[in-house]
Design goal:
mainly beta, Lipoxygenase-1, six-stranded antiparallel beta sheet, five-stranded antiparallel beta sheet, about 50% strand
Length: about 140
C-alpha cells in the first residue's frame, strides 16, 4: 500500500503562554502538545487508497490574559499559533490554503461560533479543518 505524506510547521509567537495544539487526522489524535514553546515540524503518512480525509488542527488553552488590549480597545500583544509550510505528498498548498482551510472558532467564547478563512495564524481557541481526497494528485488538480 502506498502512502502520501502530510507535513507542516506549527509554532507560537509567545512561548510563555500555554497554548495547546492537537492534530487530528480522520478523527484520530496524532499529536497533542498542551504547551507549544517552539516550532514543531509535523509529519505523518496517510494511505493513498481512494477516500475522503480530514485534517484538523486544534488550538486550546488560550486565556483572556494572553491578549493585551490598550485603552482604545486595540490589541497590543497577543498569543498566536502559526501553521505554515503545508505540504501534501511534497507539494506545497500554502498558496491555496486560504480557500481550502476553514477556521472554526467562537472568539474564545465571547461571540457566536463562526467559520473564517485561514490566513496562517490562529488567535482563538478553535479548529482548522482541511478536507481532501485521495488519490491526492487528482484532488490537487481540482483545487490548484
Amino acid at each position: 500500500m502506498n502512502k502520501i505524506s502530510l507535513e507542516f510547521d506549527i509554532g507560537t509567537n509567545r512561548a510563555d503562554c500555554a497554548l495547546g495544539t492537537r492534530v487530528i487526522i480522520n478523527g484520530q489524535t496524532i499529536y497533542d502538545n498542551p504547551h507549544m514553546t517552539e516550532t514543531y515540524h509535523f509529519c505523518h503518512d496517510i494511505s493513498d487508497e481512494d477516500g475522503e480525509h480530514e485534517l484538523c488542527v486544534e488550538m486550546y488553552g488560550k486565556l483572556p490574559e494572553h491578549t493585551q488590549i490598550d485603552e482604545a480597545g486595540k490589541i497590543t500583544q497577543d498569543a498566536l499559533l502559526s501553521i505554515a509550510n503545508i505540504h501534501l505528498d511534497g507539494i506545497s498548498i500554502d498558496q491555496i490554503s486560504t480557500d481550502l482551510i476553514e477556521y472554526h472558532h467562537d472568539f474564545n467564547g465571547s461571540q457566536p461560533a463562526t467559520v473564517d478563512r485561514f490566513y496562517g495564524t490562529m488567535g482563538c481557541n478553535g479548529q482548522l479543518k482541511l478536507k481532501f481526497t485521495t488519490p491526492i494528485y487528482l484532488w490537487l488538480l481540482e483545487n490548484m
